[in-house]
Design brief:
The longest helix has 10 residues. It contains 3 helices and 34 strands. It has about 450 residues and is mainly beta. The strands form 10 sheets. Strands 22, 23, 24, 26, 27, 29 and 31 form a 7-stranded mixed sheet that branches. Strands 3-5-7-11-12 form a 5-stranded parallel sheet, with helices on one face. Strands 15-21-19-18 form a 4-stranded mixed sheet, with no helix packed on it. A hairpin with a 5-residue loop joins β1 and β2.
């Protein structure tokens, strides 16, 4: 199968060819992997193990020197010696400067998690995708081209991002009939969700107009009939009264009871300001006032939000940046609730950033290698900090974390790796012990973690 050798029943993976490249997903149903099965597979960069496997034998991935990521399910209860390389006196020494030590993607408390902690591997604690997290468009109109349905994946209130948190594959998505979308977790999410949707041919019905036999012309509104004036008897004027008779004018159309008034056309209701057009989800907004590009992440009437994507080209080298609480477009207010992956990556001018109070998620590598950044405050609503979000910010020496919602699952691998070793980290009272443990597991400099203290 795909160049990989299995036993006859396809329950044991015997050998992967050394020339195998990129990512390899071991098929469901495989229950064991033979010793040395992936030995010297130097072109593999990612392996995903299914939950039908219970053990990884010795030297299974021996000298896979370019392996960046390996996903190990909670079903694995045993990991053999030298599974990923050499161990000498319980110190991992196999990887050289030109090699990549793999990041282990695993579940909290699993054997893989314990293994990563024991032998000082970088690791990501996974959250499993479940059916209730996924919504897929049920029907789509046939176009003769590939159909990609609208997909929403949410972890609680956090909208997950395709390409960052999950990826999709599609089957039978051109012709009329039942199509399939497969959603596979990525980054800190794991698992596979499969959904079907319908592609239907739309039928156009031509309207039929029945002619009338003889059109009858009815008086229309707005047509004024000729007024009829009944002549009166000749007026009698008593002598000496001096009465002046004023002739009765001919009625003007529209006056008097004989004329039918046309109904006025209704006028459009006045706008209240709240009826402004809401931009469609996925729309990009360029805001010259804040010097940034945003993307609409939710367009529901109850929750209108955007993500800070990046600074506007030409304005991206400012030393101070403020990510606002809200932005306004066409009279509508949008909450800024997330910072995109790579938003400020390699920005060598940024010294100070003010993050708005509505932000709940900071994307992977959002501030990666902002080498002049010295201070940052994580607002109270933040529930997620992506992997390597502040990695390589070597002058970052003041981190104030106001959020009480961070966990080992929601803080990505190496989120604060490479900050100043003597940096000061302050956290809410009651979170000191937990946050020390979380930040230590994410490769934060040991001295900075040891000095972590509560907000005074």
């Amino acid at each position: 199968m795909d160049g990989v050798l299995f036993n006859k029943e396809k329950t044991e993976l015997i050998m992967c060819p050394e020339g195998k490249e990129g990512e390899y997903v071991i098929p469901d149903g495989v229950s064991s992997i033979k010793n040395y099965a992936f030995k010297n597979c130097n072109k593999l960069n990612s392996v995903i193990i299914p939950n039908t496997i219970t053990q990884i034998t010795q030297q299974t991935f021996y000298k896979c020197s370019k392996l960046e990521s390996i996903t190990i399910p909670a079903s694995v209860t045993s990991i053999g010696s030298y599974a990923f390389g050499y161990l000498l006196n319980e110190v991992y020494i196999e990887w050289t400067k030109t090699d990549i030590q793999p990041t282990i993607r695993c579940y909290e408390g699993s054997e893989a998690h314990n293994y990563a902690v024991t032998y000082d591997y970088a690791y990501i604690l996974l959250t499993e995708l479940t059916d209730d997290m996924v919504t897929v468009q049920e029907k789509a109109a046939y176009t003769g081209k590939e159909i990609v349905p609208e997909i929403v994946v949410k972890d609680g209130d956090i909208a997950l991002q395709m390409g960052e948190d999950y990826e999709i594959s599609l089957q039978n998505n051109i012709d009329v009939g039942t199509a399939t979308v497969v959603i596979r977790g990525k980054g800190r999410y794991d698992g596979v969700i499969t959904r079907n949707f319908k592609i239907e041919r739309q039928t156009t019905i031509e309207p039929t107009i029945e002619p009338t036999a003889e059109p009858t012309t009815e008086p229309e509104q707005g047509i004024t009939p000729e007024p009829t004036i009944e002549p009166t008897a000749e007026p009698t004027i008593a002598p000496g009264q001096g009465v002046t008779v004023t002739p009765t004018p001919t009625p003007t159309p529209g006056q008097g009871t004989a004329a039918k008034q046309p109904s006025p056309k209704p006028s459009a209701p006045a706008s209240s300001g709240n009826d402004s057009l809401v931009l469609k989800k996925g729309t990009t907004i360029t805001d010259n006032d804040t010097g940034a590009v945003y993307k609409v992440t939710s367009a529901s009437s109850q929750n209108v939000t955007v993500e800070y994507v990046k600074p506007i080209s030409g304005k991206g080298k400012a030393s101070t940046v403020t990510i606002p609480n809200v932005i306004k477009k066409s009279g509508k207010s949008y909450k800024v609730t997330s910072i995109a992956a790579n938003a400020f990556k390699n920005n060598r001018k940024l010294k100070k950033v003010v993050i708005g109070k509505n932000v709940v998620s900071i994307g992977d590598k959002a501030f990666y290698k902002c080498v002049k950044l010295t201070k940052v405050t994580i607002p109270s609503k933040v529930r997620r900090i992506g992997k390597q979000a502040f990695d390589g910010c070597k002058r970052l020496n003041s981190i104030l974390i106001r959020s009480k919602q961070l966990t080992a699952k929601s803080v990505g691998s190496k989120a604060f790796r490479g900050i100043r070793k003597t940096g000061r980290i302050k956290v809410p009272a009651g979170k000191v012990k937990l946050y020390k443990k979380v930040l230590k597991s994410k490769n934060t400099p040991k001295r900075a973690v040891d000095r972590l203290s509560k907000i005074g």
